[in-house]
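Page 37, continued from 36.
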């Protein structure tokens, strides 16, 4: 069955005659452009948005947008939630925060009934609001959060409710040598559709059973668990992916000095002689909060996890980056730049089904992963340069979207946007399972050079070319 997303260029009689002439002359067709011309899109701006905190495409082609508008004289910089129809017509907007703190992080979560959840963390508090599709506030909640930990995760539960994972504030009982990792606790909270807390439980990412690669893991105050992504499994329960970081060396001593540790974007750096170790953990939990299984992933240290997705059959896919090669069959002995990989777990008991390296030129940036109806995987990332075009002078857009088959083989990929674009970590599936993504582009770095702020784009890359 041909999808409406498929790219099928239509030739007029004149173009057809030109094409026949090229064939008769033996001319070679040029490769498909990688500059975003193979995308059906609409935009907001320029001159309207100062900065977009998050943009979430809707299945109907519209958009949820959380952004600060360009300030007017005498007015403070505020954050506004707005809903947009497909094509760029603004339906409504309402202010969420009057004066936006400089350290705030926002997240948008779409609910099945057309509602939206806004979560924002700043100053040691995670605030959650739920709005109807008309902009009515339905309920709000607040959780205490560790202000030095950036990894709060929010996602829907598939039944109208919400899952939240975040690190709670320090208890005040930590040691002097390891203040940032000896305190606090990461927990998962499950809320109902009405905002009622159903349950909460601690996320201890250290595997409870022996498995390959677990021997080096530090315990107690020498370990940090950081959830990065969480997804609901259609067959029940959730999957969580993140980092476990620890030191595999000996404890600090007068001869070695104090080892200072800091976790930044998933990398654990050490100021002493201890050996930093960072690996990806993949956890599977049932609906009651009981861990079903846990696996460590990553061939060597310093692996980054970005996204997780669950299939209708209970499989769990993860996506991330590694400088050493994360897949088990990789035998690299030296770093070679960030390498994007996708892997899938499945079966009972769960095991690694496959792992595929996809690209070698992606940034540490937002990423999303989602299963299609046919079992394929859609991957969204941020590129540092041209990947699709073989032309070394090509100006590849930074928004990267790829489709993998059920075994992880690359089937299709596109780059859209400009050199200053940044994607938002969401993939929405509309009619006939067509993927839609959104991205922001700095106005000064685009063709609108005289404008301020950002341009927001919503696009559906057209399929049909490898």
């Amino acid at each position: 069955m041909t999808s409406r997303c498929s790219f099928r260029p239509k030739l007029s009689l004149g173009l057809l005659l030109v094409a026949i002439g090229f064939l008769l002359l033996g001319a070679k067709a040029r490769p498909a452009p990688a500059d975003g011309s193979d995308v059906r899109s609409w935009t907001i701006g320029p001159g309207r948005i100062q900065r977009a905190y998050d943009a979430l495409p809707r299945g109907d082609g519209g958009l949820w947008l959380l952004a600060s508008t360009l300030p007017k004289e005498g007015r403070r910089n505020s954050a506004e939630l707005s809903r947009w129809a497909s094509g760029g017509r603004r339906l409504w907007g309402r202010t969420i925060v009057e004066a936006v703190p400089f350290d705030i992080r926002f997240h948008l979560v779409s609910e099945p009934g057309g509602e939206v959840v806004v979560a924002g963390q700043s100053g040691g508090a995670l605030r959650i609001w739920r709005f109807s599709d008309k902009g009515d506030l339905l309920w709000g909640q607040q959780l205490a959060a560790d202000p030095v930990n950036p990894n709060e995760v929010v996602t829907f539960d598939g039944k109208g409710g919400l899952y939240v994972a975040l690190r709670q504030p320090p208890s005040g009982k930590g040691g002097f040598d390891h203040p940032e990792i000896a305190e606090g606790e990461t927990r998962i909270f499950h809320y109902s559709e009405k905002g009622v807390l159903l349950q909460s439980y601690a996320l201890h990412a250290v595997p409870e059973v022996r498995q390959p690669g677990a021997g080096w893991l530090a315990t107690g105050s020498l370990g940090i668990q950081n959830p990065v992504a969480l997804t609901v499994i259609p067959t029940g329960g959730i999957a969580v992916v993140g980092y476990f970081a620890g030191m595999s060396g000996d404890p600090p001593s007068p001869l070695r000095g104090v080892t200072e540790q800091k976790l930044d974007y998933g990398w654990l750096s050490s100021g002493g002689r201890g050996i930093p170790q960072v690996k990806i953990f993949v956890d599977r939990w049932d609906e009651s909060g009981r861990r079903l299984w846990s696996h460590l992933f990553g061939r060597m240290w310093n692996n980054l996890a970005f996204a997780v997705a669950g299939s209708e059959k209970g499989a769990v896919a993860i996506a991330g980056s590694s400088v050493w090669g994360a897949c088990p069959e990789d035998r690299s002995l030296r770093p070679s730049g960030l390498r994007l990989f996708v892997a899938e777990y499945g079966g009972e008991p769960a095991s690694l089904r496959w792992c595929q390296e996809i690209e070698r030129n992606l940034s540490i940036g937002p990423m999303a992963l989602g299963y299609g109806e046919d079992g394929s995987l859609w991957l969204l990332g941020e590129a540092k340069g041209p990947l699709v075009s073989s032309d070394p002078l090509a100006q590849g857009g930074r928004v990267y979207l790829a489709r993998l088959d059920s075994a992880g083989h690359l089937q299709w990929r596109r780059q859209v946007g400009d050199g200053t674009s940044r994607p938002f970590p969401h993939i929405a599936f509309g009619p006939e399972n067509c993927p839609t993504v959104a991205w922001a582009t700095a106005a000064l770095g685009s063709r609108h050079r005289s404008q301020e702020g950002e341009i927001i784009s919503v696009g559906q890359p057209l399929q049909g070319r490898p």
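The longest strand covers residues 39-57. Flag for discussion at group meeting. DSSP finds one helix and 30 strands in the chain.
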